[in-house]
Amino acid sequence: MLRLCLSCYDCLGLPGNLVKLIRNYxxxxxxxxxxxxxxxxxxxxxxxxxxxEANAAQVDEAIYAAxxxxxxxxxxxxxxxxxxxxxxxxxxxxxRFDCFVQAxxxxxxxxxxxxxxxxxxxxxxxFRVFADLxxxxxxxxxxxxxxxxxxxLNYAVRKPLGVVGVITPWNLPLLLLTWKxxxxxxxxxxxxxxPSEETPATATLxxxxxxxxxxxxxxxxxxxxxxxxxxxxxxxxxxDVNAITxxxxxxxGAAIMKxxxxxVKPVSFELGGKNAAIVFADCNFExxxxxxxxxxxxxxxxxxxxxxxxYVEGKIFGEFVEALKAKAEGLNxxxxxxxxxxxxxxxxxxxxxxxxxxxxxxxxxxxxxxTGGGVPQFGDDRDRGFYVQPTIYTGLRESARCVKEEIFGxxxxxxxxxxxxxxxxxxxxxxxxxxxxxxxxxxKRGHRVAxxxxxxxxxxxxxxxxxxxxxxxxVGLSGIGREGGMHSLNFYxxxxxxxxxx
Length: 502
Ligand code: NAD
Fold this sequence. Notes:
Strands 15-16-17-14-13-18-19 form a seven-stranded mixed β-sheet, with helices on both faces. A six-stranded mixed β-sheet has the order 10-9-8-11-12-20, with helices on both faces. The longest helix has 25 residues, at about 110-135. The chain is about 40% helix and about 20% strand. The protein is built from 16 helices and 21 strands. It folds into two domains: about 5-270 and about 480-500, 3-Layer(aba) Sandwich (Aldehyde Dehydrogenase, Chain A, domain 1), CATH 3.40.605.10; about 275-465, 3-Layer(aba) Sandwich (Aldehyde Dehydrogenase, Chain A, domain 2), CATH 3.40.309. The radius of gyration is 24 Å and the shape is globular. Bound molecules: nicotinamide-adenine-dinucleotide.
């Protein structure tokens, strides 16, 4: 069935030069207010929407509504009914599939092919997976002998945390938001979400999907705005928010940690990365080149799991760099809606300046530029967008800042190694620890090296292959805790152990 969206540009039939308004969603209503900020299309720098920034009073209202919702119908639903409604949210996303895709493409500039094959299907899948999982989730029980020889039965019951604050970034906006909202709702919580200021659209569209799916008012609330001094900080400091789940930069995680300290909230942090790939000479060469091309350039390098450090065994180093260069130069930067486009712009002018500043730094640090390093010229409106060329460097010292710091663009440094021990040591020489990939046809070595990686996720002969039931998260600066499958359910719920003397 075709749906019409209240906040969808196309469904409203607005002519292209009219700018839409993206509003907060509080207690089941879309709420406007002042001030507003601009939502910019990264492909051509045009303003596509004005966004209502939530003030402190509106954040308060959202949190109050979320708290009230726990006392109402939502708090009384059986697990089976809650799961059924989450499936309906997934249905509603699928019914408005094209609207979600267009909103995501306009906000992020990512290729339409990517939004429609990854972001939006995964959003629906997040609801389905956690709806099914909560129905299956078992409870621990133990029979205990008491000191006087009697028996006691221990069993744990799962209870919601309460109101969960969800703060998310711009790189995979809907995918990462629903990755947290779906398990939080599955566990019976209510949420107040603060999507990135760069990508406010799909979180707002999701509110309409929630309404259609029969999610009671107050269970899902959206407050737009920024971090410090704005909606983000209001959420983290608020005494009536019971937990914060956050995806974003490591330094933002540190700021949030300070902010939640006085109210002692549990946090789940999915943070930055400086991920390594290790390519052994015995790999399937074609597969490794293709895999690394994805791992470095997908979503214009703006995936936390992207590889920015590639270590290649000396014997195939030259050949590998040439092959990866050919892949980089074969990418098609362009209008996101064009079928042949497989490289979109970066998210913002500010982020492009950050990436370009690392290219300048790499030069100062002595890098050899293999390809890229600049800005493509189109000769049309895209020159006002935030595109950069896919870039490869070699020749940097391992201590160089460009090898140590997260750049978050379509860029990698490729370095040679001679021995497995050397490769493992270089890959692990980082304060981050999110993901790694190993490329080898020697499976014994694949297992051995994978188990030595100080990260939360290691792929062997693949990258970004996700089973949503598996643990996801990082070590060191890359995060705190694990989400995914039962790990998510354990974060988004409290266990009450009940001990009964028999
Ligand atoms: P960011 O940390 O700048 O912002 C993320 C969110 O936090 C935004 O909604 C922002 O408004 C909010 N925020 C900022 N400061 C805040 C504060 N003091 N208090 C409360 N909220 C605050 O991150 P970004 O630039 O949007 O995203 C890119 C980063 O996210 C990269 O470092 C990337 O590696 C990381 N990331 C990690 C994962 C993961 O799963 N580990 C996934 C995607 C992205």
